[in-house]
Amino acid sequence: MCGVLGIALADQTNTVAPELLDGCLFLQHRGQDAAGIATCGDRGRLYQCKGNGMARDVFTESRMAGLVGSMGIAHMRYPTAGSSANSEAQPFYVNSPYGVLLGHNGNLVNTLSLRRYMDEDVHRHINTDSDSELLLNLFAAELEKHNKYRVNNDDIFHALEGVYRQCRGGYACVGMLAGYAMIGFRDPNGIRPLLFGERTRPDGTKDYMLASESVVLKAHNFTKFRDVAPGEAVIVPKDCGRNPPEFKQVVPVNSIRPDLFEYVYFARPDSVLDGISVYHTRLEMGIKLADSILKELSREDIDVVVSVPDTARTCALECANRLQVPYREGFVKNRYVGRTFIMPNQKERVSSVRRKLNAMDSEFKGKRVLVVDDSIVRGTTSKEIINMAKEAGATKVYFASAAPAIRYNHIYGIDLADTKQLVAYNKTTEEVSVELGCDKVFYQSLEDLIDCCKTDTISKFEVGVFTGNYVTGVEDGYLQELERMRALNAGCKSDAKAEFDIGLYNSADF
Ligand SMILES: *[C@@H]1O[C@H](CO)[C@@H](O)[C@H](O)[C@H]1NC(C)=O
Ligand SMILES: *[C@@H]1O[C@H](CO)[C@@H](O)[C@H](O)[C@H]1NC(C)=O
Predict the structure, then answer these.
(1) Quick one: which of 105, 149, 260, 478 could link to 2 by a disulfide (CB 3.0–4.6 Å)?
(2) Sequence-distant contacts of 449-453: CB under 8 A, at least 24 apart
(3) Could you tell which of 200, 218, 221 is best to mutate to test the pocket of ligand 1, judged by most ligand atoms within 8 Å of the CB?
(4) Ligand 1, CB cutoff 6 Å, lining residues
(5) How far is the CA of 221 from the centre of ligand 1 (A)?
(6) Quick check: 6 and 209 in contact, CB under 8 A?
(7) Where in the numbering of this chain does the Glutamine amidotransferase type-2 domain appear (predicted)?
(8) Is-catalytic flag, 315?
(9) What is the 3-state secondary structure (H, E, C) of 175-227?
(10) Which atom of ligand 1 is nearest to the CA of 199?
């Protein structure tokens, strides 16, 4: 799972990079693994800065100075099976045809056949395990088929039609064609989010933005915005001050299925995705969770509701209100714990959970506590939290998850864990309670969770992580391939690629 962003400014003498960096900070929660910005300046020249780490570390002042041009895209990477610590940061670039850049949020699930196609049919070399590199090369191969000196919008839409025809999976993408345009497109099921907006300048001309979450558009005063439709693409010309963007429904909307995980955990609460307020879904999750807990416990059985910061807070507070039980901030989060480096000969004395969270004894001592979290994945964090609550003196610990039990792979870009490492894998709720060491586990039912999120127009969601049924299906052998890559990546974490790459024609200070 990742964050993508693109901005095209009407005034081509302006520099877009500072605003892209600002936008990256609004999307940082979507990926802290790597960050990249690429811009397009005069004569179609491309400039880039990308590297492993958070945006503020990668984009230093001096590096930003090299990013010239009025149009650019950015990418924040979340680690997925195909993109380990030692693979390249995005955007990805190919020089032929025309110079194409792409930033991809999502995951393709027919990579085996795409790889074969690249090799045997179009003879393009793929140098990483990343499905995003495949997607970019597929797009480039489709553009190449026109075999033209210069492309126009129709050619691009036509090439995207080829991409849609061959790709299976979730993808929300921003890209650029050197000197020509910024483009955005979204998969036919709308699994991953993408929004488009405009900002009117005093002279009446307009700037344009593409972003993974509405919060970026709003913060940058792109007041008029909407979701890109599933199967829709947009082309924003480089001279967008004179020429308006062009939209096209490239393929028909398949059944629209936004990923429920965006609402449970991933997106910022102040974002609205596909017309659904993330914050309000989380309030609703708290209410439904309380109602289902009351089927098994009475409110007199619980003394206090405590949330696991930060995502679960909204849900926990509303759950407490519904239960009419006091809500307490029993765990305090240390905001300054980033990545910590464990030296080879240094034993990990304190678990990463304990470095991040501290339990306040006064809120647990002698109490029957309901701890609310957004989800339970491997269970290692939940286990530690339950231990901490007990050590702080809780007499009973109930543990509630705003999401249903996670028993399957997440295959569209939020790579959670090997299924066998999921605590609920092949286990009943009772067995999970025993494994976690708490008095009882409560899971939101899938039906309730869907009720929390659905609207008049969207009633179905991508829920494969809970059911094992994926909206696009998966190609034979794909899940095995996923596990193989995970194992491979696990073995080479320390072998990180060069920290920064500012290579791409980056000589702006001539
Ligand atoms: C935001 O854009 C609107 C026009 O859409 C304009 O009236 C307003 O002044 C802008 N706000 C800021 C803070 O620039
Ligand atoms: C699931 O659990 C049962 C016992 O609880 C065990 O017999 C079975 O082998 C497990 N299946 C898998 C696929 O692990």
Answers:
(1) 105
(2) 449/260, 449/264, 449/285, 449/288, 449/402, 449/403, 449/404, 450/260, 451/284, 451/288, 452/263, 452/281, 452/284, 452/285, 452/288, 453/260, 453/263, 453/276, 453/281, 453/284
(3) 221
(4) 200, 221, 223
(5) 6
(6) yes
(7) 2-239
(8) no
(9) EEECCCEEEEEECCCCCCCCEEEEEECCCCCEEEEEECCHHHHHHCCCCEEEE
(10) 5
Using the mean position of ligand 2's atoms as its centre, give its distance from the Cα of residue 438 in Å.
22
- Please state, in angstroms and rounded to a whole number, the distance separating the CA atoms of residues 499 and 486: 22
**pLDDT tens figures, 79-112:** 766 555 556 789 999 999 999 999 999 999 999 9
Q: Which domains does the chain have, with CATH numbers?
A: 3-257 (3.60.20.10), 276-470 (3.40.50.2020)
CA 25–ligand 1 middle distance (angstroms): 21
Question: What tokens does 114 get?
Answer: 């795409």
410: helix, coil or strand?
Answer: coil
Read off the pLDDT band of 301 (50, 70, 90): very high
Ligand 1 probe mutation, 198, 223, 224, 225, most atoms within 8 A of CB: 223
Q: Whose CA is nearest to atom 14 of ligand 1?
A: 221
Q: Count CA within 13 A, CB hemisphere, residue 453.
A: 28
Q: What is the pTM of this model?
A: 0.93
User: What letter would DSSP give residue 437?
Assistant: T
